[in-house]
Amino acid sequence: MNETETPIxxxxxxxxxxxxxxxxxxxxxxxxxxxxxxxxxxxxxxxTAVGRWEVVEDGGSRALAQKAESPxxxxxxxxxxxxxxxDVDVSVRLRAEAGAIDRGGGLVWRAKDRDxxxxxxxxxxxxxxxxxxxxxxKRTQLxxxxxxxxxxxxxxxxxxxxxxITGWLDGVRLLxxxxxxxxxxxxxxxxxxxxxxxxxxxxxxxxxx
Length: 209
Prior knowledge:
Layout: H1 14-21, E1 30-32, E2 46-50, E3 53-58, E4 61-66, E5 75-80, E6 88-98, E7 105-113, E8 116-123, E9 128-135, E10 138-146, E11 154-161, E12 164-169, E13 172-178, E14 187-193, E15 197-207
């Protein structure tokens, strides 16, 4: 996978992708806080597509962390199994732990597989919040905004209805974009790039109102 920009291409059906992954559709409106998961192991209901994802202890609470120090072009992804959302309101708390090449992470939605999805990510090294489509493993930016970089917990929220995408960081609307590359329902998930080690907590997803 790489960051080369590519024009909008073919369509991918969510149902076929879910079947190929052996995942059934989940009931709408879900939340994951990882409190019932064993520290040091995988999170229940999550499938690692790329990277090393494990549950960690964090100040008396638990979170899901991406711990692999992957090479620069790699997109680390963990999918929430059984999710299938088209118009979606999805949010997560995240904290950048480490990373020299890259840092931070974000949310994936309408994913067909590890190479085709939308992604919004916060990067404290670049002090930016951006939204992309990833098609055939190639990433194309749809919008960007400045966002102060630090190692604190932040809340990233995305709403997509039809082709309209809106993104918030800590309750402040920063991203507005339009795209129709992936019109169908798909998986949601968590994402980091390269050696970005990031903790995630309180992932929620529901149909967009």
